[in-house]
Design brief:
9 strands; 40% strand; nine-stranded mixed β-sheet; mainly beta; globular
Length: 147
């Protein structure tokens, strides 16, 4: 969808693929190597920075692998709305781990609690200093294929 066809600027969101890429943090930093694979048009959508495909089952049944989440990047962990769903990139053992989770306030100072919808996944405490990128999930898209 291109601008000029009646769509508002906030309605058009670039869709990115993270397969074979260095991760979410470079995408948010505006790395020129990231080009959208497509664009999504959702009428009435508030301003968003992009969309990516969900991988994994941590938020099942709310989100399934292959669903698309539309996000708005946060620059500061002080701006977290506790209990909302976030796309989050965390450094674990020198590698970037990207996930979609509820972010809850932790009882430990300087940490957050990542909570899954799927009861088979345990909560995970993460030090905020290990967060490399953070984005509020504003919308999700599920495609059901009927053959």
């Amino acid at each position: 969808m291109r601008r000029g066809d009646g769509a508002a600027a906030g309605d058009i969101v670039p869709l990115y693929s993270l397969k074979g890429t260095p991760g979410l943090a470079p995408l948010f930093a505006g790395d020129a190597g990231y080009q959208p694979v497509d664009y999504i048009h959702i009428p009435g959508l508030p301003p968003c920075d992009g969309a990516i495909y969900v991988v994994g089952d941590g938020m099942y049944p709310l989100l399934k692998s292959g669903d698309i989440v539309v996000y708005k990047q946060l620059k500061n962990t002080d701006d977290i709305f506790w209990g909302d769903i976030y796309l989050i990139s965390v450094e674990i053992d020198g590698e970037e781990y990207i996930t979609v989770k509820y972010v809850h306030k932790s009882e430990n100072e300087g940490s957050v609690k990542l909570v899954s919808q799927n009861p088979l996944h345990a909560d995970k405490e993460i030090e905020t200093s290990r967060i490399r990128a953070l984005a509020l999930v504003k919308a999700s898209i599920r495609m059901n294929n009927i053959l």
